[in-house]
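Case study: GST C-terminal domain-containing protein.
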Amino acid sequence: MKQRNLVNQYLIFQMPDQGPYYGQAGWLAYCTENLEPYRTGIRRIMGVLEIILAQDKDGWFVGDKCTFADLEFLSYNRQSRGVPRLCAGGMFRGFAAYEGLV
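Here is what the predicted structure looks like once written out:
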């Protein structure tokens, strides 16, 4: 039950934070140069993810396997890599290693 609650908690964090910031930034990157508010938000979100991953010895958000919470965060993060002006620039090594798991 604890793992199920953690998965839901991460999904609730992803929906109002990562999803809108990454989605809006991806669209606006094609029509504006002022993306600093979005880069700041993306760095904040990545910092939170970095802390979560540092606390887990298995390298996943919850437990010892990939869950839908992992897939949600990875899909949006991989989308942002298509827009170089949005990338965090290698600041988050733990998250980069995590991406290599999937």
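For the exam, be able to explain this: The domain at 2-99 is CATH 1.20.1050.10 (Glutathione S-transferase Yfyf (Class Pi); Chain A, domain 2).
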